[in-house]
Amino acid sequence: MWNLQGTPEVNYTFYSRSGSQKANVCAEYLLEKGTNIGCTLPYNNQQRFDSFYTKLWDGNRTVTPLDRVPEINHDLRRKVKLNPPTNLTVMNGSDMNLWFYWNHTIKSCLENEVRIRKNNNNWEIQPVYRGPMSYCQNLPSSTARYELQVRVRFENYCGQSDFWSDWSEPVVWGFNNTTVSNIKNETMPVWTAVLYVVSAITLILLVVILLHNERIKIILIPPLPKPALNSPDVEDWFHFSKGLIKERFNTNFNERACTVREYQPVSRSDSNGSDSSRLTTSTDQTDCSIPIAMNEPEDTSAPFYTTVIASEEEQ
């Protein structure tokens, strides 16, 4: 193309040749407003290592013959711009890493440049490398979104080009681990925002009702007794219903008590008999005929009731 300084005023004739070949006229021109601005040439992979010569000639306005027009030598190896990679894919590897793959029509002599970003942050360009058409993201986060693009050019050993290809279409990993080409920014649904607002209003109303309704407040949050502000009598802490009388729970009452006494042996001598007899005097063990109050002291001076039991010899 020869329109870098603007559209030329005349139509030039373009001649080109490769190596020692004969110069040929351009077969297909690029036009701009009816004026020739460039030439489309067929590509031959082997010709990019040869010297390429071009010249422009306007036979109508110049008196210089064609064979005296100077030629310009071009190094085609540094002028090649490849097409971007295609068929980008991504998958989780068995090594728990994230692997990106792509294809290109040229299988060798390429170097790759990858750029990747996480969660719509700035792009991070990785170092240029030669080798397989793949890239590994170590230990990706399951909650993050990764987006990757790649471009290629000829490497130095095959005649390095000055031009990178365009960036490929992005491949995205994330959002339930699906691969998509284009992801649009998602906004919060309207019903979700409405639900948040209604929930907040409901919570505020419940708090207001709880603060103004003492009965509901006591039911939900029963008050705890404070011993320091109440009577030392524990019974006064309880609230008796109308059908109950506190005096019925009075602990000052009398109960019929039983007196317990011991058996005591007594020996007596009978003056009227010739032989002395052994008599045994026993006392009653219990006597429940007399009620005694709990707060009255026991009468230890009560008499023993004795019973004389004759021996078998007297009978």
From TrEMBL:
Subcellular location, record wording: Membrane
Pfam families recorded: CRLF2_D1 (PF21604)
Low complexity bias spans: 267-278
Transmembrane segments: 190-211
Topology in the lipid bilayer: Single-pass membrane protein
GO cellular component terms, A-Z: external side of plasma membrane
Compositional bias annotation for Polar residues: 279-288
Key word Transmembrane helix present: yes
GO molecular function: cytokine receptor activity
Cytokine receptor-like factor 2-like D1 domain boundaries: 1-41
InterPro entries: CRLF2-like_D1 (IPR048651), FN3_sf (IPR036116), Ig-like_fold (IPR013783)
UniProt key word Ribosomal protein: no
Recorded superkingdom: Eukaryota
Record region (Disordered): 264-303
Key words of the record: Disulfide bond, Membrane, Receptor, Signal, Transmembrane, Transmembrane helix
Protein name per Swiss-Prot or TrEMBL: Cytokine receptor-like factor 2-like D1 domain-containing protein
